[in-house]
Amino acid sequence: MSNAKIVARNIALQTVSILISIILSLFISAMITRYLGDVNFGVYSIAIGLATLIAFSSEMTLTQTANVEISRNRKNTKLLFSNILFLKIILAFIGFFIMLIASKLLGYSSDFFVILIFIGIYIYSNSFRQFFFAVIRAFEKFEFEAAMIVIDKILTLAIVIITMYFKFSLLVFSQILMITSVVLSIVSYFYIKKVYNIFFCFEKFSKKNLIIVIKTATAYCLWNICAYVHMQSGPIILSKIGSMQMVGWFNSANQLFVQLFFICTIVFNSLLPTMARFSKNNSSLLNFTYNLGMKYLFLLSLPIAAATTLLANKIILLLYGEQFFNAGGVLAVLVWAIIPYYLVCGCGNLILATGNAKMGSLLYLITAVISVPIYFAMINVYGYIGLAYGMIITIILLLTLLFILVDRKGYKIGPVMPYLKGIVSTIIMYYCLTFVSQKALYISIPIGFFAYMIPLVFIFKVFSKEEKDIMRSLLK
To answer: Which residues, in sequence order, are CB contacts of 31 under 8 Å at separation 6+?
Structure first.
């Protein structure tokens, strides 16, 4: 199968599964947020945030290591898998205890501590499942992952419905989530064992191989830690300066913001294994793919930000109700971070594929360190909305640093004209939306879509002949 068809198949599978996941996640988010209320949802989101921060920090980006390194050298799959899995298990135990100690040091209640135990196991189990997905993804196969993503969301929705029907507490809800996640992770392990004949092999495990894996993973480790510090430290800081109610307002908007990352996820997961291969033997095609990805990420993120700003309050009221009305202001500001986040995704894909993770991690570290005082300052000045401003400032800083690194490595951004055309098309869309913003979302959103796409495609003709030819080949 050609590279174009492989990428097309993977993008199609990722798109379908993630879109279904997003739709189900919106129902899940709305239902659980309304059921828990602003205070309890603040507790739940802090538990998720703290567990995620420490879990993904302690795993040393071993999932990313497996994806990239197996893509480059599939002959060593069993060696890498056995040693990485062993290391993940050891680090999981260490990270879990660090998480519990951190919750005590931060002064959270004993009730929160118990909930955190189950949420922590849930998050760590998800981490192992993502590792199994990454191993399969290295072979540029996405069918199983796509199916499991949908199954996971369907089960989570069922758990939320059962929780609401029987009026379960947050503690019981977290216990059911944990059990479901553990079962799905076990199923994923036995799937790759049966289908790909990949399993933990003691013969492949050795101190020497483990050291090789650790050295390789170290290049990705700092990247992972700093990225999650940047994303998760803000709500934790807000919980100490402000209140759990403020955290609930911010995170109700933030979880919608995170759902918009699905395009980045599709691009990252689908292209990274292929770009890792290109980096070894086809630098011109790699540069072309990078430019194409950056342009499309910008053209997609800009109208999303503009439209969401205009419709933020309606979206919040529809999903969460009057209790979370204050989250509308957060969403209207925070959504503008989607543009630099998308572009960071494009740069990050190239940096990882070309083996420059160590330098990229250093830039993430600089941003993560700077982000903490910026979050403190912005929250003190602007309250909970200040955290949204802080995230925008820090992600723009990170994007600037990554652009400089990529440029020095010889990968250049193409002509700026398509970006300018996207800006003008977005202005046209925004102007049209102002006339229908009071209408129902199912009316205003399609109008905004066509108001953006018609000038972009038919008037400004943003897609080149070469790009159209590629799209036709992907659709065959």
So the answer is: 157, 160, 161, 164
Is 24:153 a contact under the CB 8 Å cutoff?
Answer: yes
Q: What are the distances in angstroms from CA 93 to CA 54, 102, 119, 120, 301? A: 11, 14, 14, 11, 38
d(CA 388, CA 353): 30
3-state secondary structure of 414: coil
Q: Distance from first CA to last CA of the chain, Å, rounded? A: 12
Q: Residue 201 carries which DSSP code?
A: -
Closest CA to 404 of 366, 443, 445, 461: 366
Number of Cβ within a 10 Å radius of residue 261: 16
Contact in structure between 184 and 145 (CB atoms under 8 Å): no
Decide if pLDDT at 461 tops 60.
yes
**CA distance linking residue 45 with residue 48, whole number of Å:** 5
Q: Hey, what are 396's tokens? A: 């723009």
* Confidence band for 451, pLDDT divided at 50, 70 and 90: very high
Per-residue pLDDT at 184 exceeds 90: yes
**What is the CB neighbour count within 10 angstroms for residue 210?**
16
**HEC assignment per residue over 431-466:** HHHHHHCCCCHHHHHHHHHHHHHHHHHHHCCCCCHH
C-alpha to C-alpha distance for 443 and 439, rounded to whole angstroms = 6
Note the pLDDT tens digit of each residue in 218-239: 767 777 777 777 777 888 899 8
Residues 6+ positions from 107 with CB-CB distance below 8 Å: none
Which residue in this structure is represented by tokens 């897609």? Answer: 463
Which of 219 and 257 is assigned the larger pLDDT? 257
Q: Which helix (H) or strand (E) holds 413?
A: none
Residues 6+ apart with CB under 8 A from 242: 379, 383, 384
Helix (H) or strand (E) holding 411: none
The 10s digit of each residue's pLDDT in 23-80 is 898 889 889 888 988 788 888 888 888 888 777 666 656 777 777 777 767 777 888 8
CA distance 345 to 449: 23
DSSP, residue by residue, 339-407:
HHHHHHHHHHHHHHHTT-HHHHHHHHHHHHHHHHHHHHHHHHHHTHHHHHHHHHHHHHHHHHHHHHHHH
What is the token pair recorded at 142? 């996405």
Distance CA 426, CA 59 (A): 40
Amino acid identity of 21? S
Using a 10 angstrom Cβ sphere, with 0-12 exposed, 13-18 middle and 19 or more buried, the burial of residue 380 is exposed
In 3D space, the residue among 160, 158, 162 whose CA is nearest the CA of residue 150 turns out to be 158
Give pTM, 2 decimals: 0.74
